[in-house]
Design brief:
Order of helices and strands: EHEHEEEEEEHHEEEEHEEHHEEEEH
Number of strands: 18
Radius of gyration: 29 Å
Number of helices: 8
Strand content: 35-45%
Length: 357
């Protein structure tokens, strides 16, 4: 299905007039940064509904995050409720995976590691830190504040319902941030920038080059609720766009050197032929949300099933063996201490006996 840019975007970019006032840019950048940095800690549950082509996936997520401490539990419905849990608390890493089948054992690993080793289960990339465009906890992407600090062209387009902050830089690309009247971000569009072809585009295209759109992905924020002083969207949609058949034919012609790169860039954008390659809808469970509170150890604890098999230093150990080894270690340590004390007492006895002689 060809993605037609919404009437809001068309009216915003084709019918509205850019606000030349620099103060409007400063205000909207400040609004975006305040919105992005509002979330400092999070605990809650949400479900990710994802569609790609003819495939549909449902993933349930339980996430807690406060500073360097974090825990994430992910259950994949399409994999027979295969579940993974990962926790990093005070430098101690724990991992549990459970498959609800009697034929597949349950595993847990428990060993210290650094936070960089904390892996991210598939589909758990959808985290509130990502939605708020913060510097992601589990990767090293630039935050929204970082991106807005890059030099480039910035202006505000005033709309009847939404203002749009347009930020375009090279090589950063283009980002359109939509605000509602309360200053909340309701949509973020990431688009292809103009790169080194910007001046050539201006010469070859008679209109406003900012009307030429090549979308990469969008985040749409809906159903905002005020929770502990934070405006939080209970539903977030992520749309990833791909060039359609017409746009792809233009790109292929350019790759064969049959069309000038600048002309191809204009033609692809004018085709408006972009399909929704993947659509993800993230729905938060409102009564589970705890925002900007100090989270103690219980939020990062993993409950170990009675039949769990431990993996310690890449070695499988069931709980009975683990407990038996602990008992053996205690016996050995006790025997060593007893032997050491006995040896010391014997030496003292021998020394005193020699002195008496």
């Amino acid at each position: 299905m060809i993605c037609i840019i919404s009437s809001l975007l068309i009216s915003t970019f084709l019918a509205s007039i850019a606000d030349p006032n620099t103060s409007a840019v400063i205000k909207r950048k400040a609004d975006a940064i305040v919105w992005s940095n509002a979330l400092r800690s999070f605990s809650g549950e949400y479900t990710v509904y994802e569609r790609k082509a003819d495939k549909f996936f449902i993933t349930h997520v339980l996430l807690s995050h406060d500073g360097d401490n974090k825990k994430i539990k992910v259950t994949f419905e399409d994999r027979g409720n295969f579940t993974t849990e990962e926790s990093l608390f005070s430098g101690a890493f724990r991992y549990l995976r459970t498959k609800y089948s009697e034929e597949v054992p349950e595993y847990i690993t428990d060993f210290p590691t650094d936070k960089a080793s904390f892996s991210v289960p598939e589909s758990s990339i959808y985290t509130p830190q990502l939605f708020f465009q913060q510097k992601a906890v589990w990767d090293h992407n630039d935050s929204l504040e970082d991106l807005l600090s890059w030099s480039g062209e910035q202006f505000v387009i005033k709309g009847e319902e939404h203002d749009v902050l347009v930020h375009e830089s090279n090589p950063g690309g283009r980002m359109d941030i939509h605000f509602d009247p309360l200053g909340r971000v309701v949509q973020i569009d990431v688009l292809a920038g103009f790169g080194n072809n910007k001046e050539a585009l201006k010469q070859q295209y008679a209109g406003n080059i900012y009307d030429l759109r090549w979308p990469y992905w969008s985040y749409i924020y809906e159903d905002y609720k005020l929770i502990n002083g934070v405006w939080f969207p209970l539903m977030v949609r992520n749309i990833i766009y791909e060039p359609g058949s017409l746009a792809n034919s233009i790109i292929e012609a350019q790759n064969r050197d049959e069309i000038d790169p600048v002309a191809a860039s204009i033609a692809v954008r004018l085709s408006n032929d972009f399909v929704e390659g993947r659509i993800s809808e993230i729905v938060f469970k409102e009564d589970s949300l705890i925002l900007n509170e100090i989270l103690d150890e219980r939020y990062f604890k993993i409950d170990i099933p009675p039949n769990a098999t431990f993996i310690i230093h890449n070695r499988l150990v069931d709980q009975e063996t683990l407990q038996r080894n602990r008992v053996y270690r205690r016996i050995i340590v006790g025997a060593l201490i007893t032997g050491l004390v006995s040896g010391m007492l014997f030496c003292i006895y021998c020394i005193r006996r020699r002195r008496m002689l």
